[in-house]
Design goal:
Strand content: 15-25%
Number of strands: 9
Distance between the termini: 40 Å
Helix content: 25-40%
Radius of gyration: 19 Å
Shape: elongated
Largest sheet: 5 strands, parallel
Length: 238
């Protein structure tokens, strides 16, 4: 790998952008393609598939043997609310390869005893995001039922173009959420991206089952996400 390619790869990693290093196995020549530069030809289709799967592989394209080495930022799940669902979701998500952060300003809930080994922030979401901004490889899960805590997280996630935004609550609760976000200037297509009721519809009843449904929906969203640049998204208020 030449110096310019290495610099470009390091820049992509720094900016948490996916990239694929395409190497011609015959000539040894390499080309770095970032997720915002994917072409529309046969090579681009293979790169797109690799970016979605996260798996490196060889491919035969236009008579050439290529190795596609995938570099993706570690995906992370940020949970607003140190509740029972979060206690079940955090270890499951870690096993699935996600970095997990739990945020809740309510210190009675956000205790190390309830979330041992988890990145726990007993603070308001806005304060956390000032030093740990969300991005397109972040999933946001809001489960406190308290708009004062949940809404700032959802707003930040919509502005950052997170690949998943989900919120706990009934359809009536979500209708009120839609009204609040619309009053802030968010366009309806952006608001419609929020998964509510949260999680895949598997008939989940217990906190652990709901956590399974949420994690499954997050994985589905990660593997089927749009690779188009989405930060900031059209319709997000400045």
């Amino acid at each position: 790998m030449d110096v310019s390619t290495l610099k470009a790869l390091n820049a992509a990693k720094r900016d948490r952008r996916g990239a694929v290093l395409v190497s011609d196995l015959a000539s040894g020549m390499s080309q770095l393609v970032t997720e915002d530069q994917v072409p529309t030809d046969a090579l681009g289709q293979e790169i797109r598939a690799r970016l979605l799967s996260g798996k490196s592989a060889t491919a035969e394209i236009d008579g050439r043997s290529l190795f596609l080495n995938v570099h993706l930022p570690p995906p992370r799940i940020v949970v607003i609310g140190a509740v029972h669902i979060s206690q079940a979701l955090a270890p499951m998500a870690a096993l699935a390869g996600f970095a997990v952060t739990i945020i809740d300003p309510r210190t009675a809930f956000a205790t190390p005893e309830r979330f041992a080994g988890i990145d726990l922030r007993a603070d308001w979401p806005d304060d956390v995001f000032s030093t740990m901004p969300l991005d397109r490889y972040s999933a946001l899960v809001a489960v406190t039922h308290d708009p004062k805590i949940d809404d700032p997280g959802q707003i930040a996630a919509l502005e950052a173009g997170c690949f998943y935004v989900g919120a706990l609550g009934s359809r009536k609760t979500h209708a009120k959420r839609i009204e609040r976000l619309a009053s802030l200037g968010f366009d309806q297509p952006i608001i419609d991206g929020i998964r509510a009721p949260i999680g895949l519809d598997i008939g989940a009843a217990t906190p652990a089952e709901i956590a399974v449904a949420i994690l499954a929906e997050i994985i589905q969203s990660l593997r089927r996400r749009s690779l188009a640049s989405g930060t900031p998204q059209v319709g997000v208020p400045a």
